[in-house]
Amino acid sequence: MALMSGTDVAREISEQTAKRAHEFERRTGRKPCLAAVLVGEDPASVTYVKMKRNRSAKAGIESRLVQLPAETTTGELVAEITRLSQDAGVDGILLQHPVPGHIDERAAFEAIAPGKDVDGVTMHSFAAMAFSEPGSASATPGGIMRLLDAYQVDLKGKHAVVVGRSPILGKPVAMLLLARDATVTICHSKTENLDEIVRTADVVVAAVGRPKFITAVKPGAVVIDAGYNEGNVGDVDFDQLAETASLITPVPGGVGPMTIALLLEQTVSAAARRADLVDVGEVVG
Ligand code: NAP
């Protein structure tokens, strides 16, 4: 078994992103700008936003923080995001999710202007991704694909099993795997014989939100653990699979850093597209 280090691959992507951000600033006189919207004070969300802002600063990206109280209504949140969508100084918008349960999250996501959807959460971005058209990939699925590429995992004709079908993770990663000629099966909470299906996979993507949910794979399978549960535990039972998998992502240090790296990369790409700097918009590598 070998580890797939998201930390190492994310560092390489971030170095490229920092170079592109620097070039953007040299050409335009301003840094690319990412606005993060945080509703309420959920400790995990506060930590994620802090990490994303720190990493933005390191990459030469300006970050703005819009903090709203937990009681914010859907209408107020939509109005705030619409304001950021219209703000010429903002290149990318990140709505940290999940938002409090009384808010219509989809309505809030859809208030993000398509050109500023650097986290790839809008229906527009999903459709563009599904049709292999330019745009921002959903950040975690995009990060997973980059990790698979960095470790030269052959996807063509292989059976990929995605466990989970959320709009920000399971569904988009399934579309991206399909676009790369994998034969894709999506499992969810109503799937029968899930364990058996998982054991037929050449590539497994666990996106369930349940600690150590995947306990067995086919010998030689590639295992991507997108899960992140309390206590740094993934959706995969790492110790059980360490012997059978050929490649496996650790938690932490696997998918997590890739998500942030893609978010920042896509922020610089969005800034470059908005400024018509085609060469700065290109991602090399
Ligand atoms: P989610 O919206 O809760 O979706 C979970 C999915 O898993 C659903 O499709 C659900 O099926 C399925 N599921 C739940 N219990 C199941 C069971 N017993 N058997 C089979 N399928 C089951 O979660 P998410 O936002 O996609 O996140 C999934 C995991 O990824 C979480 O651990 C989360 O923390 C992590 N995550 C990590 C990152 C990162 O950057 N590393 C980013 C986002 C999320 P139904 O559709 O049938 O309900």
> How does the overall form come out from the CA principal axes?
globular
Bound ligands: NADP nicotinamide-adenine-dinucleotide phosphate
Supply the helix-strand structural class: alpha/beta
Give me the side-by-side strand order of the main sheet: 1-9-8-7-5-6
The first-level CATH class name of the largest domain:
Alpha Beta
Number of helical stretches of at least 4 residues: 11
Low-pLDDT residue intervals, each spanning 5 or more residues? none
CATH topology of the largest domain: Rossmann fold
How many individual β-strands? 9
Total domain count: 2
Distance between the termini: 26 Å
Profile the largest sheet: 6 strands, parallel
CATH superfamily of the largest domain: NAD(P)-binding Rossmann-like Domain
The CATH architecture of the largest domain: 3-Layer(aba) Sandwich
Beta-strand percentage?
A: 5-15%
Return the average pLDDT rounded to an integer: 96
* Backbone CA Rg: 19 Å
* Order of SSEs: EHEHEHEHHHEHEHEEHEHH
Describe the structure.
It is built from eleven helices and nine strands. It is of the alpha/beta class and 285 residues long. It folds into two domains: 28-113, 3-Layer(aba) Sandwich (Rossmann fold), CATH 3.40.50.10860; 139-256, NAD(P)-binding Rossmann-like Domain (Rossmann fold, 3-Layer(aba) Sandwich), CATH 3.40.50.720. The strands form two sheets. The chain has a six-stranded parallel beta sheet. Strands 3-2-4 form a three-stranded parallel beta sheet, sandwiched between helices. The relative contact order is 0.17. NADP nicotinamide-adenine-dinucleotide phosphate (NAP) binds at residues 140, 163-166, 168-170, 187-191, 194, 207-210, 226-229, 235, 255-256, 259.
